[in-house]
Amino acid sequence: MSVSIIIAQEEHYKFAQEICDTMEASALLRGTGIAKRSPDYIQKKMQNHDAIIALENGKFAGFCYIESWQHGKFVANSGLIVHPDYRHLGLAKQIKKKVFEYSQEKYPGAKIFGITTGLAVMKINSDLGYKPVPFSELTADTTFWAGCKGCTNYDILEKKEFKMCLCTGMLYDPNNKKPEEIKFNKKVLTRLKEIKQTFLKK
Q1: What are the entry keywords (predicted)?
Q2: Number of helices (H), then strands (E), in the chain
Q3: CA angle, corner 9, sides to 67 and 107, nearest 5?
Q4: Which residue among 44, 57, 86, 198 is buried most deeply as judged by most CB within 10 Å?
C-alpha cells in the first residue's frame, strides 16, 4: 500500500461528495450518530488548508479536517474517515497522527480535542496523549455544539444541557508538560459506553 497523506487543497474538491457519502455510510454501518457535513463545507476546509487527505494513485483513501474555536485557543480534529477499501491497515492512525502534528504546527499552543463514540478513535487519541475529560473542559463556543445538530443523538445532548452525550470528550493540552499516563482499557470504555446508552437515552 503506497498511500500519500497530504494537506488537502483546491485540487481535491472532486473528492468532497465521496468523503461525505463515506462518512454517512460508515455512521449507518456502526449505528452511531455523526454530525453531517456538506460537500461545500469539506471544500471550504480544503480551500483554507484545514484538512488532511490520504490518496493512493489518485483514489480517495481517507480524510480528516481541522476546526478552530475561541480564536485558535481550541482545535478539533474532526471527520476522521477511511474508505472501506483501506480499513484495518492502520491508515486511520496515520491520518490522525498527521492531522494532530499539523494542528500543532498551524495552531501552536492550542488545546486539541475531540468527541467520539468510536473505541478505535479513543485508542488512537489515547496513544497521542489525549485524556478523557468532561465536556466542561472543551470549548465553550456555541458554534461548535451547533455543529452537532446533524447527529442523531443531538436531542440527548440538548436534553443534558450540552454537559454530556453518548460521545466521550478527549483533550490534549500542550501546556501540561507531564501529562498523566492514560492506559487505554477497551473493556472499561465499552462498559462505560453501554451505561451511557442505557441512562442517557431515557
Answers
A1: Transferase
A2: 7, 7
A3: 35
A4: 86
Whole-structure pTM value: 0.81
In angstroms, rounded to a whole number, what is the distance separating the alpha carbons of residues 188 and 135? 19
Q: What is the pLDDT of residues 110-166, one digit of tens each?
A: 999 988 887 888 889 999 999 999 999 998 888 888 888 877 788 888 888 888 888
Is 45:81 a contact under the CB 8 Å cutoff? no
Which tens digits make up the pLDDT trace of 40-52?
Answer: 999 999 999 999 9
Q: For cell 471550504, what's the residue?
A: 44
CB neighbour list of residue 81: distance below 8 Å, 6 or more residues apart: 19, 22, 23, 26, 62, 63, 64
Q: Is the pLDDT of residue 172 over 90?
A: yes
Assigned C-alpha cell, 141: 463556543
Q: What is the residue whose three cell numbers read 443534558?
A: 160
CA nearest to 112, candidates 124, 149, 34: 124
Q: Name the pairing type of β-strands 168-172 and 131-133.
A: antiparallel
H-state helical runs in the chain = 16-30, 39-47, 91-106, 119-128, 142-146, 154-159, 186-200
Q: What is the residue-wise DSSP string for 72-110? A: TTEEEEEEEEE-GGGTTSSHHHHHHHHHHHHHHHHSTT-
Instruction: Assign a CATH topology to domain 3-200.
Output: Aminopeptidase (3.40.630)
Q: Which residues of 48-85 are buried (b: 16+ CB within 10 A; e: fewer)?
A: eebbbbbbbeeebbbbbbbbbbeeeebbbbbbbbbbee
